[in-house]
Amino acid sequence: MEVTPTRNNKPNTVTTKTNDSSHMRTPIDWHKSSETIPYPDLTKVKNFWIKVSLKKNRTYLYDGKKLIYTMYSSGGMYTKNPKTGKMESMTPTGTYYAQAERGDSFFNQSLNEGANYYVSWLDHGTYLFHSVPTQAGGAYNVKEADKLGKSTGSHGCIRLSIPDAQWMSSHLPVGTKIEIVN
Description:
Layout: E1 3-7, E2 14-18, E3 48-53, E4 58-63, E5 66-74, E6 78-80, E7 87-89, E8 94-97, E9 102-108, E10 113-122, E11 127-131, H1 142-145, E12 158-160, H2 162-171, E13 177-181
Parallel strand pairs: 3-13, 11-12
Antiparallel strand pairs: 1-2, 3-4, 4-5, 5-12, 6-7, 8-13, 9-10, 10-11
């Protein structure tokens, strides 16, 4: 996909235009959907699948080869693999499939972090798409939320804006193919 940054009419913001007429919201706002157009109607999509780019901090929704929606996302932090010495994301790469586990919220005591609107894609509740993180009381962790679409930050899950996570939790069919790449 060819990406060309272009200036829009707002000061200090850049709109990314792709060869498929992207509608990405700028600046990034984790309270809002990533695009300014409606989410895709999956009843009209014949070959739905998802590609997550960890380094680009984007989650792409496809109908076959056609990009139909892009979400800002943040995946796992990069750490040094003790066996290889290489930096690797805490998010596993490869091909996975959406699982049945999903819900409105969770809280992980060991990480002292939770999130809203989740859906599992690996190990039945271990690796999820979910909203930007929440604190113990349920309030969003603004410092972490502000990383959305800009840098990594999770322990392996894919973080999304609140509305994007809610859409994903409500609409992602079980069995949908998910490719996660660096």
